[in-house]
Amino acid sequence: MSEWFDLSSLVALVPVLLRVTTPILLAALGVHISQRAGVLNLGIEGMMLSAALAGVVVSAFTGSAWIGLLGALLIGLVLAGMLAIAVHGLKADLILAGIALNMLAASGTTLILFMLTGDKGMSGSLASQVLPSVTLPVIADIPLLGPILSGHHILTYVAFLLVPVMALTMMRTPFGIRLRAVGENAEAAATAGINVVRMQVAALLLSGLLAGAAGAFLSMGYVSWFSANMSAGRGFVALAADLMGYGSAWGTMLASLLLGTADAVVIALQGRGLPSELLQAVPYIVPVIALVIHARRRRVVA
């Protein structure tokens, strides 16, 4: 086992861990903000998938990775707006609307991909632009620490910097306090003069933006192309990460790192002679085990 995970291997594993954690963390923060407002965004998977395609298409036609990112964010925002209209305007069930959005994204992205490229699997003919990585001055030259902290994708830094920003926003700002009040007791918040619908719509829109960023990372950072259903359940893993985070942005980050570690270990173990079916199942087994432990702990506390 030591020959598998020596010091150099562990240092090399850290960038992989941060790379696979980034889309989970961005999506989990999106789930976190909607959950605190009492409108769980179950459509996060579909938003990520649609944003991933939008990033590739827009960046390919404009030749700009930044415009591609803007397109991905816009798609996430639009789909979140559609979910908000369905729930608050048409009085649809939140859970069913989220599931419908995921189904629409899964089939719609495949259709659009086929219409643009003639391929239902991958965007081979669309050359996606790639968002840059960031080298941190001075830190990059420090042995061992440099490869761990420097040279990561720009959205990776954005994801982890958003954690303290969101924690501070939720706990110390009027917006965050109102948002939490709506999520904890909407009727009491309305009695206190808080516009419940406005706060929940705002939470869904912010959640959509974060889902858009997660999707953009998948197709413009994790890889540089789009493939059908490439979100691969990461939106649902993000839902698990937020639940495991006990309603805290910091807890959500730690849970995302735990779930990302499962992915990173699988990547590190590829080619070691282990059954591929087992390795493919690990990233989904870990959230299930973690949720069972989480539910048991909550039951004990209750």
Task: Describe the overall structure.
- By secondary structure, the protein is mainly alpha-helical.
- Helices cover 74% and strands 1% of the residues.
- The chain has twelve helices and two strands; from the N terminus they run H-H-H-H-E-H-E-H-H-H-H-H-H-H.
- Strands 1-2 form a two-stranded antiparallel sheet.
β-strand percent reads: under 5%
Return the string of H and E elements. Answer: HHHHEHEHHHHHHH
Number of strands: 2
Work out the radius of gyration: 20 Å
CATH topology: ABC transporter involved in vitamin B12 uptake, BtuC
Q: Major sheet, described briefly?
A: 2 strands, antiparallel
Distance between the ends: 40 Å
Order the strands across the largest sheet as they lie in space.
1-2
Spell out the key features of this protein.
two-stranded antiparallel ribbon; ABC transporter involved in vitamin B12 uptake, BtuC; single chain; mainly alpha; 302 residues; 2 strands
Short description:
This protein is mainly α. Helix content is 74%, strand content 1%. Strands 1-2 form a two-stranded antiparallel sheet.
What is the strand and helix layout of this fold?
Elements lengths: L6 H30 L7 H19 L2 H25 L4 H24 L15 E2 L10 H5 L2 E2 H19 L1 H11 L1 H6 L4 H27 L11 H11 L4 H21 L6 H26 L1
Antiparallel strand pairs: 1-2
Helix pairs in contact: 1-6, 1-9, 1-10, 1-11, 2-3, 2-4, 2-9, 2-10, 3-4, 3-9, 6-7, 7-9, 10-11, 10-12, 11-12
